[in-house]
């Protein structure tokens, strides 16, 4: 399992993903789940994956290969004119990979499924984020749903729902996401560090800041320890429960 989030802020986009991949308690590995497709001055696209590793790696490999020599039969993510068309392309590619498993007689196993977050900006279109399902269809982030998650979402979602603000700075958004990821990591062995982060500044059409946050990162350690203390303090300040008097 994994955990990936895409946030849509007024000033741009923030993407964060973990790197844990496991097929059992004795088979744990680290793999990148975040991939980028950039053409300076024209487009900046980020793709994050969750689900079966063989499926997601096949999807990314196809997108990369077809970006090198595209034609009408195999369009390129570096050539499609809009983010909507990019989402269609990623969905079709995911379906193609899953159909290949089906032809091999293995599609019945749901473990071959995958979901993908795709976000960025192309030309004069607006920055946006899509969540692509195994069936190839997708949904788009909006002002009502300004963040999208894939993977092990339930532990970190309450943090985002309570604290997210589209007007927050990139720095505040990264802090919020780290709290969400830390809560998920502590609750589920299928999610773990290192964490990949990417920032996209609205209308820049250029790769923004990217970095990897490890377990020994001083800021992450402060967030992890500080959030635990803050929760205990907040819990202590809540009014005490009293049983009704008989």
Short description:
This protein is of the alpha+beta class.
Notes on the protein architecture:
With 246 residues, this protein is an alpha+beta fold. The protein has a single domain (3-234), classed as Glutamine Phosphoribosylpyrophosphate, subunit 1, domain 1, CATH 3.60.20.10. It is 33% helix and 27% strand. It contains 5 helices and 12 strands. It has helices at 53-68, 83-103, 157-163, 170-187, 218-237, and strands spanning 3-9, 12-17, 20-22, 28-30, 34-39, 43-51, 114-122, 128-132, 138-140, 147-151, 195-201, 210-213. Strands 10-1-2-11-12 form a 5-stranded antiparallel beta sheet, with helices on one face. A 5-stranded antiparallel beta sheet has the order 5-6-7-8-9, with helices on one face. A two-stranded antiparallel sheet has the order 3-4. Helix 1 packs across helix 2 (83-103). The longest helix has 21 residues, at 83-103.
First-to-last CA distance: 49 Å
Low-confidence stretches: none
How large, in whole angstroms, is the Cα Rg?
A: 19 Å
Number of helices: 5
Q: What does the largest sheet look like?
A: 5 strands, antiparallel
H/E series, N to C?
A: EEEEEEHHEEEEHHEEH
Q: What is the strand arrangement across the widest sheet?
A: 10-1-2-11-12
Which outline best applies? Answer: globular
């Amino acid at each position: 399992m994994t955990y990936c989030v895409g946030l849509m802020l007024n000033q741009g986009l923030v993407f964060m993903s973990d790197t844990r991949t496991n097929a059992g308690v004795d088979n744990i590995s680290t793999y990148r789940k975040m991939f980028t497709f950039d053409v300076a001055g024209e487009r900046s696209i980020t793709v994050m994956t969750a689900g079966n590793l063989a499926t997601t790696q096949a999807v990314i490999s196809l997108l990369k290969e077809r970006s090198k020599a595209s034609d009408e039969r195999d369009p390129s993510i570096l050539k499609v004119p809009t983010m909507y068309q990019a989402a269609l392309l990623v969905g079709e590619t995911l379906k193609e990979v899953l159909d290949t498993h089906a032809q091999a007689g293995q599609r019945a196993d749901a473990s071959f499924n995958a979901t993908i977050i795709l976000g960025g900006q192309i030309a004069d279109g607006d920055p946006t984020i899509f969540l692509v399902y195994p069936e190839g269809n997708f949904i788009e982030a909006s002002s009502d749903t300004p963040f999208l998650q894939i993977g092990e979402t339930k532990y970190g979602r309450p943090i985002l729902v309570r604290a997210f603000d589209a007007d927050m700075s990139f720095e505040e958004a990264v802090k919020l996401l780290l709290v969400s990821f830390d809560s998920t990591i502590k609750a589920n062995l299928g999610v773990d560090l290192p964490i990949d982060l990417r920032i996209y500044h609205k209308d820049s059409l250029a790769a923004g800041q990217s970095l990897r946050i490890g377990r020994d990162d001083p800021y992450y350690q402060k967030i992890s320890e500080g959030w635990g203390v803050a929760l205990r303090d907040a819990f202590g300040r809540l009014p005490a429960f009293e049983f009704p008097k008989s």
